[in-house]
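Open question from group meeting: does this chain pack into something compact, or does most of it stay loose? Before anyone orders reagents, we agreed to write out a predicted structure and look at it together. Recording both the input and the output here so the notebook holds the full record.
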Amino acid sequence: MARVTDQHPILNSITKTVVLHDVDSRIPNLALLKLGTFYRQQGWRVVLSRARDRAKQAVTIDADLHLGSVVFRTPSSARAVEKLRALYGDRIEFGGSGVDLAKRLPPEVEACFPDYGLYDHTLYALGFLTRGRTKRCPFCVVPEKEGRLQRQAASFDDFVRF
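Structure tokens returned:
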């Protein structure tokens, strides 16, 4: 198993690194976009690790903090979580609907503008104008996670900049 470390003196001068693990998203993960902004504002180096990239090579990434986001509760997502736990042990923390419906981003992270640069994403913005759901489809976790439909969770300006 290879280990990735920073040999460049400028990168080594940055004291802390956080790796954001996108476990199962096909589109940019909003929670990770906000975490990226939050940690950059704190002066951390932020690295994104995506499932499709991890599948190409088995590499562990040296970092001060590992955070994983799991959107779906599926067998493949569970296997990916177990692989990451095997690599990082208790140094990785997971959140998202796929692992814990009650866990939330802290308010100071939720308030951050998404760091679209993490995914090199410029096609469209991501965010929630409202939270919750009026319907209760048997396959959907939104009513359990978010509750009943709320009037407004954010304004358009909270996730789009002109």
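Observations to bring back to the group:
The beta strands are 2-4, 17-22, 45-50, 59-61, 65-69, 92-95.
The two ends are 44 Å apart (CA to CA).
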